[in-house]
Amino acid sequence: MTTKTNPGRFFEDYQLGQVIAHAVPRTVGAGERALYHALYPARHALYSSDEFARACGLPESPLDDLAAFHVVFGKTVPDISLNAVANLGYAEGRWLQPVYAGDTLRSSSEVIGLKQNSNGNTGVVWVRTTGTNQRGEAVMEYVRWVMVRKRDADAPAPATTVPELKKALAVEDLTLPEGLDFSSYDFTLAGEPHRWGDYQVGEVIDHVDGVTIEEAEHMMATRLWQNTAKVHFDLTFRPEGRLIYGGHVISMARALSFNGLANAQMIVGLNGGAHANPCFAGDTIKAWSEVLDKAETTTPGVGAVRLRLVATKDGHVGHAHGEDGKYLPGVLLDLDYWALMPL
Amino acid sequence: MTTKTNPGRFFEDYQLGQVIAHAVPRTVGAGERALYHALYPARHALYSSDEFARACGLPESPLDDLAAFHVVFGKTVPDISLNAVANLGYAEGRWLQPVYAGDTLRSSSEVIGLKQNSNGNTGVVWVRTTGTNQRGEAVMEYVRWVMVRKRDADAPAPATTVPELKKALAVEDLTLPEGLDFSSYDFTLAGEPHRWGDYQVGEVIDHVDGVTIEEAEHMMATRLWQNTAKVHFDLTFRPEGRLIYGGHVISMARALSFNGLANAQMIVGLNGGAHANPCFAGDTIKAWSEVLDKAETTTPGVGAVRLRLVATKDGHVGHAHGEDGKYLPGVLLDLDYWALMPL
Amino acid sequence: MTTKTNPGRFFEDYQLGQVIAHAVPRTVGAGERALYHALYPARHALYSSDEFARACGLPESPLDDLAAFHVVFGKTVPDISLNAVANLGYAEGRWLQPVYAGDTLRSSSEVIGLKQNSNGNTGVVWVRTTGTNQRGEAVMEYVRWVMVRKRDADAPAPATTVPELKKALAVEDLTLPEGLDFSSYDFTLAGEPHRWGDYQVGEVIDHVDGVTIEEAEHMMATRLWQNTAKVHFDLTFRPEGRLIYGGHVISMARALSFNGLANAQMIVGLNGGAHANPCFAGDTIKAWSEVLDKAETTTPGVGAVRLRLVATKDGHVGHAHGEDGKYLPGVLLDLDYWALMPL
Q1: Which of C28, C32, C35 to mutate against chain A (most A CBs within 10 Å)?
Q2: Does residue A40 sit at the B interface (CB-CB below 8 Å)?
Q3: Enclosing H/E stretch for B80
Q4: What domains lie within chain C, and their CATH numbers?
Q5: Could you give the CA distance from residue C74 to residue C223 in angstroms, rounded to a whole number?
Q6: For the segment C156-201, what is each residue's pLDDT rounded down to a tens digit?
Q7: What are the GO MF terms of this UniProt record (chains A, B, C) (predicted)?
Q8: 3-state secondary structure at position B135
Q9: Are A90 and C36 in contact (CB under 8 A)?
Q10: Which residue on chain C is closest to A27 by alpha carbon?
Q11: What digits encode the pLDDT tens for the residues A99-113?
């Protein structure tokens, strides 16, 4: 027997400054768009209707921002997280232009940080991943850090480099889509009357609705993004239950947040995020949001709102941490992002 | 915590003559079409092959008529049936033109009837819903009535208005697609030799095949139509089992009816329908049809046939009611529609 | 009650030389492509990226070769295998040109062999099936033989004709897509560095990954190809468990084989195949391959490799038969095919 299969990279296979071109470019289109609507209760009008998107200055309805993220992220899995013990965090995520039907996406990652853990068996790798389209233009980028196993515990530790990352992007860091214009935004078609001015910093919104998760759904979603990490698919590998891809929880929670945040149309920044507890089939995902910040933009009719999106499996609303400062066991996700809203 | 989420309308929120523009327009395309074929055993050739559709005078294969119905219907849920206790009936449903890939659909409903129930806690609301495309042309319309909770039992009852609805559309009420022509219809490609003249009023057809329903499938279907009623998704809301969207049963039964009614290609009228008993995952849907009426049309080569489509979960064929006049417990659906067939 | 439903053909309904035009042509497109990626962990770059396909001389990314096979095969089910007791084998399968979005496929089969079994109750039927596109051009063909029930055991046996079939296609029998050129093949984007020259006849590759199968997935896949054989859908018909369509196992195993055979891009020949044991929901499919043969081609940069693809439900690698010469109980599939690889 030969070993032509990908064993994945181990901690000592990463060097600072190394750029990894990820494999398997992907053309997206009408099929991915429909599947996104079948897998998540997605109702944001800009991603549902070409006509609505055109009325907002875009050429047509783009692929959901999170779907673009999943495609870019999925390509990195064989190179970054195949031997990962834990997905530790995200930062400085920026959507740089919308993805349209017919676009072909690819990803590459630069290693921007390395730190061996004191136990000598694992280390933390920071990468900045960029997704580009067929014209070579960046469509999004984000930093992610993971804990990775060492192949050989005795391999020497690299010099420690911990990148300085912004706690949150400032509104000036965000890139708004060219041509976007919410001046004649149709609130009736969008589904809710609440505009940027109606949201207050500190406000908490219970999104009320819930979805009980099924195995077939999360596997279809995860495969669609060509994320092939074993833990999501192979019950002989994880007899205690297939672990649901964290991105499935993100998309589910974001779609549920339509109810109360129907006008938080576009995601343009990802400040941070934690997959607080694992999610399994049978869990019922619910979500609540907190308004963290608000900012004006120079794009006509468009305001930015910084939101915290918390997904739970117990329906608890309003706080995610216990008295010990740790995540409550019912919390699945704690995400911090910037969205665009009509003024 | 703030309440920006949609609480749904209560009985006293409806006024006679009120027109409600439903939110979230939706562009449909190649993805919705493929998903429809993945979710249902749909084989009617006109909806499967662009070439077959062209040979019948249409520009290309339209979206399945029931998919068009589901999209139009789905948009009404947040405004009409979020607080509904029961979906009581349909009438005067007419498909006015086919929906093609790239079309963007929206819906609006006019309140055409109101009647408070004697218990004072609920009332019946009749609405006529119209789906329109991006050119503002109506693609379908139907009347539906639901029983809705009152917010406040002490709120005064509105004047009772019960609309006069046709028991069944006459063939003159039907709109046949422009250009349609079954003169050179290919029965071999369509899958069955039986033409309009081969069906007799009173004839009963057992469609034989069955599909055992899974949770992931009905949820994907229901989300695809952006119908987000809680009862279909949230097992903590309905621990006794997620209720399957009635439209899923309609589409499943119609697709199964291919076997014996392969040439009942287009649905153009919905005379009435009852969701006789709830459907749950694990049920095996089978179907039988009865020919209720036949009529000639002025469209070349096209006859109309009025069909009763009964879906069951026990495989019983031929009658749907017990001796007490009530639906048998194994009956899921009793639908009355007009379809177009080659002469 | 009338009998307009399709009872399927019985053994005595087939005559040597008979050509059966199968019903329900199908237009494929962006939706089928996305669904294929959602249902299988498919990552071969030529089928994932229009840009990659163009760099290989094709106009765009074709529909997966196995999806084309499933569509062509699905149409034959109502005429060939509705009353089949067993699917006995495949031979001389050739992909003749890629299928692109917008193509409409149909199928026809010629009866090329008949042999009544000694028990008098069943017989074997050999058919050569051809799939053609909207221009009437053949896109693929294959021979398949099935054991079919007789309607009437006393019906006379036809003259026995057993077609002479090649054990395996020679490389000269294969049709390579017009324009294909792997001269500037991008191994980094494709995901693995192993080229044609790196594979040795006799080499065995363990594809490592596994997928635990769910009911909703295999039913969606099987319906997508309009294969409506009862055994796959109706739990009241098969209370012991819905039988998974053999083609679902083929596609799953082929997609898993990416890990180690990422550059075996196109399938151009099917030499044979056996569905060794039935597959049910809950089984975890894994796969291994063996290199059976290699051949040069006259297409620039392209080599052919003959592969044996074995799917298992027990993860056993390296041999498929027991000491008794029979398939081991954990083996699901034993497939023999030709694929194209960059030199």
Answers
A1: C35
A2: yes
A3: helix B65-80
A4: 1-28+63-165 (3.10.129.10), 180-343 (3.10.129.10)
A5: 9
A6: 999 999 999 999 999 999 999 999 999 999 999 999 999 999 999 9
A7: lyase activity
A8: coil
A9: no
A10: C49
A11: 999 999 999 999 999
